[in-house]
Amino acid sequence: MRFRLPFTGSAARRRAEDAARALYDAIVAQARQPGFYLDLGVPDSLDGRFDLIVLHAHLTMRGLGRREGEGGRHGTGFAPEPARAVSQALFDLMFADMDQSLREMGVTDSGVGKRVKQMAQAFYGRVLAYDAGLADAEDAALIAALRRNLFRAVEQPDPAALTALAGYLRAQDRALAGAEGLVEGRVAFAPPPVAA
């Protein structure tokens, strides 16, 4: 059973939460695509799945931050209020779901807060690394961020897989920058890339 944020009574808040739920479900479904694990060598572990969820959530939040050409924190202005509300609801839902998942795995109450805090710090660190990599026209910084995060448990990640994933991130980032329907909870990801 998935965690559901409580309704606050506001119709706009409920719409943002419903959109966030649909986006999060799509993000989790994309992070579970076998091609990431079988073809590209992402570790099929809690950490590997966490990192793929973070990567796709970040891409989606970047897209929300650039709605209607406003730029968000990645551009020149702020995203319109509905996009900001959906982005915040998505973030809240993702970490509430991780909290619940930890509890279901048997982590004690005293340990859950510490683990969720570590996950939030990891999220923000990855956001900074992926933003810097996407801002650079060359792939070196983006590939380094992928190696450090997504492949941190892999001694020698396949260079072709890293290059394919860097291209995938750039393509998804471009597609989500102009994507219609994000605020309503509609997102479409491309299939996982194939390493050449």
From TrEMBL:
It comes from the Bacteria. PANTHER family: UBIQUINOL-CYTOCHROME C REDUCTASE COMPLEX ASSEMBLY FACTOR 1 FAMILY MEMBER, UBIQUINOL-CYTOCHROME-C REDUCTASE COMPLEX ASSEMBLY FACTOR 1. It holds the Pfam family Ubiq_cyt_C_chap. Belongs to the CBP3 family. This is Ubiquinol-cytochrome C chaperone family protein. The lineage of its organism: Bacteria, Pseudomonadati, Pseudomonadota, Alphaproteobacteria, Rhodospirillales. Residues 39-179 form the Ubiquinol-cytochrome c chaperone domain.
